[in-house]
Structures are given as structure tokens and as C-alpha cells.
Amino acid sequence: MPTRPRKPTNLPEARGPGGDEEEPIEILEVVGVDETTGAVKKNKAHRPAGSERKAIEPDPENDAQARLLDEAVKEKDRLYDQLLRKQADFDNYRKRMERERDESGAVAAREVLKRLLPVLDNMERALKTAEASRDPLRKGIELVHQQFLDLLKKEGVQPIESLGTAFDPRLHEAVEVLDVAGFEPDMVLEEMQRGYTQNDRLLRPALVKVSSGKAPKDHAEREAGEDS
């Protein structure tokens, strides 16, 4: 705390000759403290000039620029969201067109394969008819038949094994129901036309004859007569 000198109030008496003279004690006045109460005085004069905070006055020009900036940011966000939506719509459209194009190509290929199957049927009938023949022509038909089967296999075409299996309406088409003794109902007894699948999808059903599960009438009557 700063102090300043003050005049002495009670000066000590001067000593006689031969004695040591003592220096008068100076009492310092404490600056900023009340001599009576000892409280610290408030001195506004020590505050630096111009230290008081000035109030910020609103600037209309800055407010207008802030509004323009806020509107520009909102417009940018709106356009960016619109761009993302358009891009997503375009991607969905492109995928849908590719899927439809692939499906159209697959349908066209299936139609071509269906038209080739009767040719394969005729070759198999010719080979079955001349099964015991050693004619070189039959050998040639066998080679072409095998090439045909290899080509169909590359396209995912597989024959349906029907003989001796249970009738499946998803793969078979029944053309006749036969009463044959010793067979359970709905068993494939004969294949009239071979069926085919392509990539596990039905390409052409097999035309088959199935059992009814009943014995022929004459067979039942004969068995009844033997029992009697």
C-alpha cells in the first residue's frame, strides 16, 4: 500500500552534550486508508482514463449481411438435398432399366431354346428308331445330338428325370392315367415327351402317363375268381 511522509508531531527532546542524538521518527501517512476507522478509501482517481467499457451500438449493415449469409446457407442446403434426391432417383432408374434389359434378354433366350427343343426331340426319336443300326448316318446323328446337348448345358438347360418318380405338377403334365397293378397312385409310368429346366426354372414340362393306384378290371376279376 503506498505511503507518503507526514510531519512529526511529538519531537523527542535533545540530549545533552556528549550523548548520542537520535534521529526523529517520521510517521508515514497511509494513503487510501481512513486514519480514524482504518477502512480503505475508494479512490476513483486511480482508474485509468478511458477504461470504462463502451456499449456496442448495433450496425444495420452487419445485420443485413448476416441475414443474407443465413439465407445463402439455407439455399445451399436445399439445393444439395435436391441434388442427392435427383441422384438417387437416377441410380434407381438406371438399375431398373438394367434389370428389365436383362430380363428381356433372358426371356428372348428362353423362347429360342423352346423352339430348338422339338429339333432335339426328333433327333432322339431317330436315334431310338435306329438303335440297333450300324449305319454311319446314325453315328453322325449321335455326334450332332451330343453337340446339341453340350450347347444346352452351357445355357443352363437340364433334362427332367421323370420315369419312376412321383408326379409333380410343377414339372410334369399328365396326359393319361393308367390302372396298373402294383403301382402306387401318381407314379410316372411312361414319358411321352422329355421336359427341361433352365437354371432351375421350368423350360418345358414333361408329358407323362401316371398310375391311378388301382388294378385293371380284368386283373381284379381274375384275382377274385382265383380266390373263389
What is this structure, in a nutshell?
The protein is 44% helix and 15% strand. It has 228 residues and is of the alpha+beta class.
Question: What is the strand and helix layout of this fold?
Answer:
Elements: E1 3-5, E2 28-30, H1 60-129, H2 136-154, E3 157-159, E4 172-178, E5 188-193, E6 196-198, E7 201-204, E8 206-211, H3 217-227
Parallel strand pairs: 4-8
Antiparallel strand pairs: 1-2, 3-6, 5-8, 6-7
Helix pairs in contact: 1-2
Textual characterization of the structure:
With 228 residues, this protein is of the alpha+beta class. The chain contains 3 helices and 8 strands. Helix 1 (60-129) packs antiparallel against helix 2. The protein is elongated. The N and C termini lie far apart (145 Å). The mean pLDDT is 82.
Largest sheet: 3 strands, antiparallel
What structural class should be given to the helix and strand makeup? alpha+beta
The proportion of strand residues reads: 15-25%
Q: For the largest beta sheet, what order do the strands appear in spatially?
A: 3-6-7
Question: What value does the average pLDDT take?
Answer: 82
Compute the CA-based radius of gyration.
58 Å
Write down how many β-strands occur, each being a DSSP E stretch of 2 or more residues. 8
Q: Portion of residues in helices?
A: 40-55%
Order of helices and strands: EEHHEEEEEEH
How would you classify the quaternary structure? single chain
Counting DSSP H or I runs of 4 or more residues, the number of helices is: 3
Low-confidence stretches: none
Query: Based on CA inertia axes, which overall geometry fits?
Result: elongated
Roughly how many Å apart are the termini? 145 Å
